[in-house]
Amino acid sequence: MSATPHPNPSHVWHALEVDKTIQVLESNAEAGLSSSQVKQRLEEYGANELQESGGRSPLAILIDQFKNIMLLMLIAVAIVSAVLDIRNNDFPKDAIAISLIVVLNGILGYVQESRAEKALAALKKLSAPLVRVMRDGKLTEVAAKELVPGDIMLIEAGVQLAADGRIIEESNLQIRESALTGESHAVEKQADIQVAEETSLGDRVNLVYQGTEVTQGRAKVIVTGTGMQTELGKIAALLQGVESEPTPLQQRMSQLGNVLVAGAMILVALVVVGGVLRLGWDAFEELLQVSLSMAVAVVPEGLPAVITVTLALGTQRMVKRNALIRKLPAVETLGSVTTICSDKTGTLTQNKMVVQAVELNQKSLRVTGEGYAPQGEFLSDGRAIDADRDSDLQALLVACALCNDSFLQEEQGQWKIVGDPTEGALVTLAAKAGIQKDQWSSRLPRVAEFPFSSERKRMSVICRTRQEAGGRSQEVQDYALSSLASHNSAYLMFTKGSPELTLERCDRIHTGDRAVAINDAQRQQILEKNNQMASQGLRVLGFAYKPWSELPPEGSEETSERELVWLGLVGMLDAPRPEVRDAVARSREAGIRPIMITGDHQLTARAIGIDLGIAQAGDRAVTGQELERMSQADLEREVDQTSIYARVSPEHKLRIVQALQRKGKFVAMTGDGVNDAPALKQADIGIAMGITGTDVSKEASDMVLLDDNFATIVAATEEGRVVYTNIRRFIKYILGSNIGEVLTIAAAPILGLGGVPLSPLQILWMNLVTDGLPALALAVEPAEPNVMKRPPFSPRESIFARGLGWYMVRIGIIFAILSIILMEWAYFHTQANVIPNELSRDRWKTMVFTTLCLAQMGHALAIRSNTRLTIQMNPLSNPYVLGAVGLTTVLQLLLIYVPPLRAFFGTHFITPIELLICFGFSSLMFVWIELEKLFINWQQRRKAHR
Ligand code: ATP
Questions:
Q1: Global confidence as pTM
Q2: Residue 567's closest CA among 422, 435, 436, 391?
Q3: If we measure between CA atoms, which residue out of 302, 103, 90, 309 comes closest to residue 765?
Q4: Looking at the domain assignment, is residue 475 inside a domain?
Q5: Per-residue model confidence (pLDDT) at position 620
Q6: Partners of 208 in the beta sheet?
């Protein structure tokens, strides 16, 4: 007998009643599945995961490696070189070696790319969402992959569905199914309906599908399909993973590749044509050899690999600091951020709310207690009051408990909340006076609601006040409720939200068991109290209620949330995160401006903003209402001065980003809600919250903060700057030497020296090994001390900006001068042949080869800093550079002194004295760069003096 039901594929869930569905799936709408059922079904159906089939196949990745223009040119060089060698009856060693390098490079690129894809897949898992489900009669959160058919899942606005399901009950549920149907408008969903079997996917309004997004409302859903049995699973090609688009730098590098290849072609043409014109056809073959070498020398073969590795290491370092990169370009562009627009609640503050003050009509109370523990007292003028006997307080606390979707839980003596901390604080507050949420929810069951949204800044729930007991309608009689329900109404609506907006909708005030008309003086007093609390940095909510004799229609919030009875204010403290103050100061020092954008009250926002150093005492906060009245041009004028935006809605965020961008700012913007997605997409770096963020906001983001913390953004920015600086460093390092090689090779025929100083194979060796290894080591160079003490670099600047291009040319020329002087001397020294005959007369070439390699070692040591002398730096702060330099030097010596290697690489034995001369010449490179640093420092000091 099979103990598990078989949900797929025969059932047509949309044509089935809810009860029948639950029955088929052997579940329970209230208690959910039991642990043993879950275990059994996990075994039967497997984890709720889509098989990754959307990525590129390994073969496609491999083929892509050879679509690189630089590799194609190397292949052409190999062919020409092979033809020349075969014609001369020589073994085509260079051609084979070049082909080997091409293949190796392809394999290396392949391994790196597949590793990068795997790493991104692992990152994706890290950001996998949690799902709220009922299991064993309790509400818990489980990882999406642990869902099984029959699970009872609770969903709400912002959630991305983790499985397919049938809706059991819902409230104003709207779902965007574009991932599945392509339809971008949200679809209204319903529970109490069956549709015909042949209904198409988009019209099955009683079902929800994996991968779609809840844009509004909430629902209870029974899971009908998981993993590959979902509709999304059936079209796995739609899989969206972490995107791995090429970064701006990678794009610029491939452009650079094109330029270099074109340059190489022109050089080859010039050398061959010019040479033949001057020297005649006899010289053709040698000229061709020279130009082949030049073509190989001009291409920085090692560069693409080093860049990929650097970006990958960057993402790893960022994850260690709690910033998860979703789109690779963010790694390098983070360093260019000039403005960080941050939410307040949870990002700048701890999002651990504790109610401190309650304001009833004519009565101010302070509340004691810590955290979410339901213990504390209500003090009036410093004396504890008896909360049970205060009907106004009781009525407010009932509203706190019922107009609420969070739960309080005790785990190992610790009180925790499940859900929104703002609401958790309210459940705790009510419990402090003995009003337990679960008891009250069963006494006054919720029958409808108008859910919270950041635009409305309020929410309402409608509860039934009568219970059907033994077939008779029995009115709930209670001390706290007798006053609220004195109207003998069948339903009570509780509303909470931003005090100003809630009060606006009240025409009465609750006082001493009665609702009386509210007058202007009372309104004024409430608003003043609200301001007072807010300017202490408290987050304040207003509460109201309204009796109904019958249920208002669904979706009628605008008309129904009117003529309310005011209950009171509740003020809660959400302390700033201690580390944020320092992070704000650091970002300011780094030329990055922090801006707070919050839905909260302007005075609360200002108090916290001033405390954190985001704003100064006199600064004003712009409110959402003011924003509404501003034209985009006005806003553009405003954004330069304003650091605090309060009571804003998500669409205002979009306008603020656009205005900042128009002013040339490079904007990072945080967001957590469904409606924040457009602003996150518009921002240069969209940042979602890992803990409190909705799935939709994460999907739209470039980066996810695993700890929701502002300080993490600043840390990630620092890492971004380090990555970018290091990339620039090794580009300088690699391309400088390429220029030196090309000039040296070109100089040989010009100086009339017989033969090509460097063979293509030796050049490949230099570009890949003796340049590549130290470049990799430079890629992990730690942050320079001033990395966060200078303004950000423009993301639009060219890679050659700020002296990089000039440095490359300058150092390339120095390289060439050194090696050409050495070459000239070594040539005549070796031709003079004063030493016994067994030494090759061609060993001047090996001396040039060795000097160029060793000069790059000195370059690597010196280039670690632009301003600090090498002796001022701790050599162990990046031991990899020392290691790479040591290893490369040894490898170079092996090439000269191990006969088989010598034979393969075409080098010649050189005497120890000659080797010393090479060392001496090459160390001049190091000396030169150190002198440059001294000169730059001297210039800067002189400038500072003036
Ligand atoms: P931030 O944008 O910095 O995260 P926030 O959390 O205050 O700030 P929203 O969540 O959009 O932003 O809330 C805006 C306002 O809506 C709050 O200041 C509060 O007055 C009200 N509010 C917040 N949460 C609730 C809730 N659960 N029920 C009713 N009203 C709420």
A1: 0.76
A2: 391
A3: 302
A4: yes
A5: 82
A6: 165
How far does residue 896's CA lie from ligand 1's centre (Å)? 72
Burial of 631 per CB tally in 10 Å (0-12, 13-18, 19+): exposed
Q: Per DSSP, what are the bridge partners of residue 213?
A: 160, 176
pLDDT of residue 244: 47
Q: What average pLDDT does this structure show over 590-612? A: 94
622 and 667 share one domain: yes
Ligand 1 centre and the CA of 2: distance in Å? 49
Tell me whether residue 85 is one of the annotated catalytic residues: no
Question: Ligand 1: which of 351, 427, 454, 569 to mutate, judged by most atoms within 8 Å of the beta carbon?
Answer: 454
Give per-residue pLDDT as tens, 512-545: 778 899 999 999 999 999 999 999 999 999 999 9
**Domain range spanning residue 151?**
13-52+121-241
Ligand 1 pocket member 457 (CB < 6 A):
yes
- The pLDDT value recorded for residue 250 is 66
Domain boundary among 670, 692, 716: 716
Establish whether residue 498 lines the binding site of ligand 1, counting it when its CB lies within 6 angstroms of any ligand atom: yes
**CATH code of the domain containing 421:** 3.40.1110.10
User: Cα(354)–Cα(651) distance, rounded to whole angstroms?
Assistant: 29
Q: List 358's β-bridge partners, or say none.
A: 365, 570
Instruction: Report the CATH number at residue 22.
Output: 2.70.150.10
8 A C-beta contact, residue 150 and residue 26 = yes
| 87 located within any domain | no
Q: Please, is 584 exposed, middle or buried when counting C-beta atoms within 10 Å of its C-beta (0-12, 13-18, 19+)?
A: buried
Domain boundary among the residues 573, 606, 632 is at 573
Q: Are 268 and 339 found together in one domain? A: no
Domain presence at residue 821:
yes
Nearest alpha carbon to residue 177 among 198, 204, 151: 204
* pLDDT tens digits, one per residue of 552-579: 988 788 899 999 999 999 999 998 999 9
Beta strands in 520-630 (DSSP E): 539-548, 564-573, 593-597, 622-623
Write down the catalytic residue from 94, 151, 164, 343: 343
For residue 94, tell me if it sits in a domain. no
501 CA closest ligand 1 atom index: 20
Q: Is the pLDDT of residue 237 over 50?
A: no
Per the structure, how many domains does the chain have?
Answer: 4
497 and 594 part of one domain:
no
